[in-house]
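Subject: Sanity check before I submit

Could someone independently write out the structure tokens for this chain? I want to compare against mine line by line before I put it in a report. The sequence has 424 residues.
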Amino acid sequence: MTPSASKNPWLWVPTLYLTESVPYVLIITVSVVMYKNLGISNADIGLYTSFLYLPWVIKPIWSPILELFGHKKQWFLSMQFILSLVFLGVGLTTGSSHFFTLTLAFFWMGAFASATNDIASDGLYLIALKPEQQSFFVGMRSTFYRVGMITGQGLIVIVAGYLEEKFADPAQAWSWTMLGVGGLMLVLTGINYLATPKVLEERIAKEDQPSFGKVFSTFFTKKNIGLSLGFVLLYRLGESQLVKMASPFFLDERVDGGLGLSTTEVGFIYGTLGVIALLVGGILGGIFISRDGLGKWMMPMAFAINAPNIGYVFLAWLQPDNVYFAAFVVVIEQLGYGFGFAAFMVFLLFLAEGIFKTAHYALATGFMAMGMMLPGMLSGYVQQWLGYPGFFVWVVIATIPGFVMAYTVKYPREFGKKVLSTKY
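---
Independent answer below. Compare away.
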């Protein structure tokens, strides 16, 4: 790290990861709500929106390009600007007769830009901060990443719900909402231009530059790589299916097995009560690992991220009239998720250790995306086959492999523990 990278991480880590998460959640999660409101079936929603994970799965193919050419800040600013244009495109085509095909095409372009933005943003985080700082800020990084996701699932969905009621036309409501998201992305891009540090990245002499194959092979020859990838793929097996069907469950009418909530109510639950619980969980997770190391907290965090899914089983069977029952389940789930996801993020940092941190981190997160994509693609069909009560029982059963992998995966127990003498 060079003196030019001395900008306070407390200022730029939150904004960088907020900008990383907002487009991701719009493309992967909020698109589910939008398509549900526009009359697309659960099976098609699960299949096509899960397939949008593909750029995050295959992003390691082009991650070495970012490792070897250009600067991380140039890359992520360019991608963030492209994303603003993508959401403007979605907003302009939502009301068309071929909206499903056209908006999916824009979301596909946005997915590739967002995945590239992730590589560059994570790369800056890894080279601008010392290892002990990386562990310390993983809680804030994870928290603001999730704040961005809640902004999408909460505030943006609330706005869309309000506009639905105002216009009595879901297509017009979502058109104006996505145009607003395009403007938001332009603002966030400008903030990151000013706030993020300029890091003089170390360059390898041309004759010493590693081959494309070497960057990949050094990842797959890491010790215990099979167990590590098993953990990455299975730690969130239950959530990968729940996340695709949670919003349709809340929005579907009671005669169809759902809770019959409005779009505004769904946004309120995730965007207000959920965000408070998430912030608490994420901050505590980062602090505890920084204090004690990953080993002490891996299993408790695996329990925290998976066990709250049982709440959805009760919601599906009881179908309570009281919206606060649903809110309570979401709060517990978000609290556990924020706490448990910290262990996952720290493990990914461990898996990226070595000379090619940016590319190896991209590989690790690519496998993480694969673990979300493949089960998610089938989630809508499983839900339609089993109904909501049976589906959520299946989700709980699907958490078992995550517990097994959390128990068996290998890593230094002290990894992530803060060096007490370090000053920030």
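---
OP: Matches mine. For the report I'm noting this point. The chain has one domain: 3-201+218-408.
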